[in-house]
Amino acid sequence: MLLATAQTSTMQEEMRRVAATGYRFVAVQGGGTVFGGSEVVAVMSRNPEAEGGPTYDYLLLATTRTSTMQKELQGAGAAGYTYAGQTVFPTGLGSKEVVVILERGGCEPEGDAYEYRLLGTRRTSTMHEELNAAAAEGFTLVGMTESQMTFGVTELVSILHRRSEGGASMRVSGIALGSSATTLGIGGTATLTPTVFYCDGTSEPLDYEWIPSDGSYLHLTESGRLTAVAPGSREFTMNYWGYTASVVITVLPR
């Protein structure tokens, strides 16, 4: 089965939908279309004679920032997801984001926990040194691609992983997004407060990297700091390896 979409979030939903019927991921490719747009294409297959076989769950991570991808890979690896494939996907801002597909499931639903390391550099000599250093620590290369940042710089991105001990207790069960205040006056400030929940019943604040923006009502910094600039409401949404959470902040008139 071939899946194609112009949105990475839609691709994750489609992959999970067909995986529930016995399909398993085979390959992925991102690129331009004949109409000038961009889309991600994934191929999935199943054995029609293998009734009642294992099913798989899929997680799709996409970002133009290697630091953000590193954090999300760590969370997914702790939950038992393992690398399945990667590609690059052109964005509307002239950059290319790295898209990584991870898989979990099969005969052992709990799976192994993995620790991930992402290396990004513009120099092959530097990548050579960093790959050797990571290999000495037990990491194995699972994928390599090229990414272009919003300011036109192209870098080589390598993804490595190794099995980690005791990762099962850190399996993520959900996330939540709050704020130190949900109603502000003009000039007021607040901070978005993401939280991650684990299957063992524990939780902790999530170090989430926001994309700064100067909205009509609220300005947002990379650390999640909000400043109210005009009356109105805005919904802020975050995605963390398959889970979505949001919060609405309202700015009151003077």
Protein described:
By secondary structure, the protein is mainly β. The protein folds into 2 domains: 2-163, no CATH class; 172-251, Immunoglobulin-like (Sandwich), CATH 2.60.40. 15% of the residues lie in helices and 50% in strands. Strands 10, 12, 13, 14, 15 and 16 form a 6-stranded antiparallel beta sheet that branches. A hairpin with a 5-residue loop joins strand 5 (82-90) and strand 6 (96-105). It is globular.
Concise synopsis of the structure shown:
The protein is mainly beta and 254 residues long.
Q: What is the number of E strands?
A: 18
Largest sheet: 6 strands, antiparallel
Average pLDDT, rounded to a whole number, is: 82
The radius of gyration is 20 Å
Terminal CA distance: 56 Å
The stretches of 5 or more residues where confidence is low (pLDDT under 50) are none
Strand content: over 45%
Backbone shape:
globular
Domain count, please report it: 2
State the secondary-structure class: mainly beta
Query: Strand-and-helix sequence, N→C?
Result: EHEEEHEEEHEEEEEEEEEEE
Helical run tally: 3
Helical percentage: 10-25%
